[in-house]
Design brief:
Elements lengths: L4 E3 L3 E3 L10 H6 L4 H4 L4 H13 L5 H16 L2 H15 L3 H16 L2 H9 L37
Antiparallel strand pairs: 1-2
């Protein structure tokens, strides 16, 4: 397996595979990630490649949702991605009742008009539901046998 290597003068080489080495179908599916692909860690690339492998078996609405989530994810800064990953990890540790509470808050938030969502985002962070505005994360890639779960609209299970 390739890892990030140091190439003289302290420059880092990108983890394999580079974008240019992906297959045409993977490139088509992972297109929203093209700009940042070569900078991703090898384990993140592997997870996104698993998403691409599952993509053809998803329903069209799941594919559409996944593409939108990938575009959102690609637009996040590295710090926002780190925060989203941490929030996902925290959510996975919640008991079932707490997870249900977060899901209900998310559903309520999702039905708000955009201007009200923006107002919430600018206000007290504690007033926001978990994962508000966060798209797909490669840390939540479904297992190979659960392609349909990749299209879930739950903020903590988004691919």
């Amino acid at each position: 397996m390739a890892v990030i290597l140091t190439a003289g003068a302290g420059r880092a080489l990108a983890a394999e595979p580079l974008w240019t080495r992906l297959g045409s179908q993977e490139k088509r599916i992972l297109a929203p990630l093209q700009e940042s692909w070569d900078a991703l860690e090898e384990r993140r690339k592997a997870k996104w490649r698993e998403v691409a492998r599952l993509y053809p078996s998803m329903k069209p609405e799941e594919q559409s949702r996944l593409k939108a989530q990938m575009r959102q994810w690609a637009a996040l800064t590295p710090e926002q991605r780190r925060a989203a990953r941490e929030e996902f990890r925290e959510h996975t540790r919640l008991d079932p009742d707490s997870k249900q509470d977060v899901l209900e808050k998310w559903k309520t938030y999702s039905t708000l008009p955009p201007e009200q969502r923006k107002a919430l985002i600018g206000s007290d962070p504690a007033a926001q539901p978990a994962s508000a505005g966060v798209g797909a994360s490669p840390d939540s890639v479904p297992d190979a046998g659960s392609a349909t779960s990749a299209g879930s609209s739950s903020p903590a299970t988004a691919p």
